[in-house]
Amino acid sequence: MEKKKKKKKQIPFRINLLFFAVFILFSILILRLGVVQIVKGEDYKRKVERTEDIVVNTPVPRGKMFDRTGKVIVDNTPKNAITYTQYKGVKREKMLKVAERLAKIIDKDTSKITERDMKDYWILKNPERAKKKLTKAEMSDEKLEEKDLYKLQLERITEKELKELTKEDLKVLAVYREFISGYALTPQIVKNENVTPEEFALVSENLEVLPGVDTTTDWDRHYIYGDTLKTVLGNVSSSDEGLPMDQLDHFLSRGYNRNDRVGKSYIELQYEEVLHGQKTKVKNITKGNDVLEAETLSAGQRGKDLVLTIDMDLQLAVEKIIEEELLIAKRQSNTQLLDRAFVVLMDPHTGEILTMAGKQYTKNEKTGQMEMRDFALGNITTSYNVGSAVKGATVLTGFKTGAIKPKQVFNDTPMKINTLIKKSYSNLGPLNDIDALKRSSNVYMFHIAIKIGEGRYQYGRPLPINTKAFDIIRDSFSEFGLGVRTGIDLPNETPGLKGPDTLPGFLLDISIGQYDTYTTMQLAQYVSTIANGGYRVQPHIVKEIREPMIENNELGPVVETIGPTILNHVDLEQEWIDRVQEGFRKVMQEAGGTAARNFKGKPYNPAGKTGTAEAFYDGPERAKFKEPPEVMNLSLVAYAPHDNPEVAMAVLIPWAYQARSGHTANLTIGERVLSTYFDLKKQRLEQGESAGNTVQAEQTANEGN
Q1: Residue 669 lies in a domain
Q2: Where are the beta strands (DSSP E) in 63-208?
């Protein structure tokens, strides 16, 4: 009985202990709730109610390009587009369901899907089967991170398993891969090529069941004149390409998105920051994963417009002349190597490029047919031996260095250095500096080079020279624009090539343009320097930057005018430049001049210099030859009128023919081009339109308003 009584007494004690413990726990809980509600309640409330502001930039159409008379050259063509905006926190499973719905409405190209895309999609569609690709040991191995396990899963997917994906699956995948390639809250193009009106309408009607999907208007770059100047105007990346990888950091640091379109080459690239425009800035107010409100911070504005220095009427006319004369020259020449020709027209006082034309006759790899292609870019990216066109710089270098004096006479007879014969095309007899230019004497230029090199010529004997003469002549030539970059506002300009050797014979060759190579643009800058009295003007292809106008094809207010830039002034006495200019005038206007047959009696009174260079072929067909064949390059530099120059011209025809005699397409092209320039000017004046000044007139009108 006593044992039973003791046991009963122990029970209340345990219950009391349990109650006490419960009391303590409840006290702690009440105390904790009090701290949460009273002490930190406001903080937690703010966290729950906290929203996040995320600013997103939306791209706008690029700026247009106009020619100097106000004609649109490059425009934007609107087109329907379907986009997807990935909201924060959206799971991939939900995105996949949206992609499945959208794939049933639109047709999506599947050709860009990679094997990796297919494997990723297979794992997403078959999560349980994907797990079985891993062993228990691998899943429990702490050394293997999640990415390592995923890599193992990818590697173990078989071709048979990939073949399980149907055509419908691939369509879904093609849409889904566009979904996941974008950034959170940034619209990503899903389809903008060949979006049919039916697709656009169906997507618009089903937006409620397609969260994140939207219909909008995209744009495409439209080059109004087709291939004309296309190599110079450049290209723009597609939405698929986005930012070029080699310039990714550069663009990202300037607020670009990875899938933004940017200029890839030449004018589109050079003036990217101007053409790109000001993006629309939208502030998305988010709470958790939901967007509560979208507020436009600043309306976007399409890119600023460029007014080019190019006159498209003149450009088109010059291109037609090149095409016609190039085909005629090919029939007349004894070589199939002739495949290109170049022409640059430039204002010698301002550096404005009026025409930058180049054509290449080549095979279309797709059709197998020969065709004319735009090669305007070749005016700055390819260089050639140009021959006697450089002799004006040689004579002026002779004056500058004191090697010759005005009116100095040399006897033009063949020269012999050891066994090497150097001569002109004929024995021209005694000539002064002016007549040496008029009749294109090689021997006169040789004497200048020898004197610059401190050499003493003796017939049939070696010719010792000071090799510093190479640098002296090249440095002087560079002051006129030969052998250096002209500074044109386009990337990838070549300075040309300098011959590597310093033998005496090569020094003589430099003096007649048959050793170093030059571009057509360099020739235009060089002859402009002579035409304007010694000022090397930087050529430029953009004339103005203007604000965009809402109305189609109208010019807005001027933001910036690109004026003349003088790169250097050649230190010349007036008498020296006068004598070279007179020699150039006689070349074209006086009997015996090397271009008089084509230009004598022309009402625009031209001046200039012809060029024929012995060279070696280094074109696209060179692999067919064991040794590069000898060819003749033709060139022509000119300006007009000779006493008040308003236009400078350079013509260059590489690999024109292979024999010692051939066609004179350089003169024919030059004659037709200059005549076309002045005919067009006359026509516009008769119509009451000042050639090339339409844009200026509009600018004045805008300022007046």
Answers
A1: yes
A2: 65-66, 72-84, 188-191
